[in-house]
């Protein structure tokens, strides 16, 4: 089982299902939501995810229709995202994991919105657009 937590430790979660894949998302929403060049995201089945502590500290921002980005309201850590359009799956911000999920990022998505100051230096497939957050890689 995988576990993870936010920067301040208020929010803790566990993942009981097998990870479905990882991706680097370069879309403008992910860049701003993470404050970084890209978002490294872990795709999982939604029924394998559970918040075990700090549920009252979790807030979300709907960055575009349906895209609910959840974060810790105490420390600001981005934690996970889901979209009611795709109810069986969700994505977890890989930087908040406590241990190795056993999968590796397999694809760059939304490269059309990549930060101009960041250069991709690996050989993974690149997609100009999404879909940004279904299981892939
Ligand atoms: Zn926190
Ligand atoms: Zn994105």
User: Helical amount among residues, as a percent range?
Assistant: under 10%
Average of pLDDT: 93
Ends apart, CA distance between termini: 21 Å
Strand content: 35-45%
> Oligomeric state of the chains?
single chain
Low-confidence stretches: none
In the sheet with the most strands, the strands line up as: 6-7-8-9-4-3-10
Count of strand segments:
10
The biggest sheet, with number of strands, parallel, antiparallel or mixed sense and barrel status, is:
7 strands, mixed
H/E element sequence: EEEHEEEEEEE
Rg, Å, rounded: 14 Å
Ligand inventory: zinc ion
- The secondary structure category is mainly beta
Q: In CATH, what is the class of the domain at 2-19 and 39-103?
A: Mainly Beta
CATH architecture of the domain at 2-19 and 39-103: Beta Complex
User: What is the fold-level CATH name, i.e. the topology of the domain at 2-19 and 39-103?
Assistant: Metal Binding Protein, Guanine Nucleotide Exchange Factor, Chain A
Tally of alpha and pi helices? 1
Tell me about this structure.
The protein is mainly β. The protein has a domain at about 1-20 and about 40-105: Metal Binding Protein, Guanine Nucleotide Exchange Factor, Chain A (Beta Complex), CATH 2.170.150. It contains 1 helix and 10 strands. The chain has one helix spanning about 30-35, and strands at about 1-5, 10-15, 20-25, 40-45, 50-55, 60-65, 65-70, 80, 90-95, 105-110. A 7-stranded mixed β-sheet has the order 6-7-8-9-4-3-10. It has a 3-stranded antiparallel β-sheet with strand order 1-2-5, with no helix packed on it. A hairpin with a 6-residue loop joins strand 8 and strand 9 (about 90-95). The structure holds zinc ion (2 copies). One zinc ion (ZN) binds next to loops.
């Amino acid at each position: 089982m995988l576990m993870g937590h936010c920067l301040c430790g208020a929010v803790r979660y566990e993942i009981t299902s097998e990870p479905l894949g990882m991706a680097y998302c370069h879309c403008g929403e992910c860049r701003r939501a993470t404050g970084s060049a890209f978002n490294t995201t872990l795709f999982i089945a939604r029924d394998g995810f559970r918040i075990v502590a700090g549920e009252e500290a979790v807030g979300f921002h709907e960055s575009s229709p349906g895209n609910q980005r959840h974060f810790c309201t105490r420390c600001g850590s981005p934690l996970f995202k889901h979209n009611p359009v795709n109810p069986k799956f969700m994505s977890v911000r890989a930087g908040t994991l406590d241990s190795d999920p056993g999968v590796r990022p397999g694809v760059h998505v939304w490269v059309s919105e990549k930060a101009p100051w960041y250069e991709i230096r690996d050989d993974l497939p690149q997609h100009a657009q999404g879909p940004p957050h279904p299981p892939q890689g």
